[in-house]
Amino acid sequence: MDERAIIERAKAGDPQAQSILVNRYSKRVYNLALRILRNREEAEDVLQETFLTVINKLDTFDGRSSFFTWVYRIATNAALMVLRKKKIRRANFRDNDLDPEQIQLTNTVDWSQDPTASIENKEIKQRIDEALNTLKEKYRTVFVLRDIEGLSTRETAEILDITEENVKIRLLRARQALRNYLSEYFDERVAG
Fold first, then answer.
1. Coil, strand, or helix at residue 111?
2. Of 83, 84, 80, whose CA–CA distance to 159 is shortest?
3. 161 conformational bin, left if phi > 0, alpha if psi -120 to 50, beta if neither
4. H helices then E strands: how many in the chain?
5. 120: left (phi > 0), else alpha (psi -120 to 50), else beta?
6. Hey, is 134 helix, strand or coil?
7. Is this model's pTM higher than 0.70 or not?
8. CATH says 111-192 is which class?
9. Residue ranges per domain, the chain?
């Protein structure tokens, strides 16, 4: 069955069609959220929120963009909202508010699919993760969508509701910042 037919059935309230859509995109949405947030629990929350929104707002999908782009836009917005809330909480945090039971360690992205990867590869992946953490949210999000998720400039612009030119500028700045950060590491390795 083609996607348009599934979408129409899902819009009509068919739970099987809705389930097909969730299953089709859930892994990619989770990976996107994980790359933006770098926290598994938050990525799971974004995954759930994304598909609740998708199912609740399915009747508003008009087909002007691809369904995939529409879902990714919802997921990206949900992930960015989590980041904004974290910024607000950090801004309101005071040292005297510290409660040891509320401290949570954040998970970093597990870049390796192979648990037997060499120590050197793990170190490189850790450096890349550190480099991504140094990027401002708007640059990191564009980099994740374009270079990690492989979306086109047009799709990224639609998801983020910015111009294609803005996507290109942000991507260039993200790549330059990452190159600068990582060049120090690789220069040390070559010199050492």
1. coil
2. 80
3. left
4. 8, 0
5. alpha
6. helix
7. no
8. mainly alpha
9. 1-107, 111-192
Q: Is the Cβ–Cβ distance between 107 and 39 less than 8 Å?
A: yes
Note the pLDDT tens digit of each residue in 74-120: 999 999 999 888 876 655 544 444 343 443 434 444 444 444 345 56
Cα–Cα nearest to 9, from 78, 1, 101: 1
**Cβ neighbours of residue 170 under 8 Å, at least 6 residues apart?**
138, 139, 142, 143, 162
What pLDDT is attached to residue 117?
45
Cα(51)–Cα(67) distance, integer angstroms: 13
> Is the alpha carbon torsion for 15, 3, 48, 12 positive or negative?
negative
Residue in 135, 113, 105, 104 with CA at minimum distance from that of residue 36:
135
CA distances from 149 to 30, 36, 171 (A): 12, 11, 13
**Per-residue three-class SS string for 49-71:** HHHHHHHHHHHHCCCCCCHHHHH
**pLDDT > 70: percent of the chain:** 79
Q: How far apart are CA 30 and CA 44, in angstroms?
A: 7
Considering just the CA atoms, what is the radius of gyration of the chain in Å? 19
Domain 1-107 fold? Rna Polymerase Sigma Factor; Chain: A (1.10.1740)
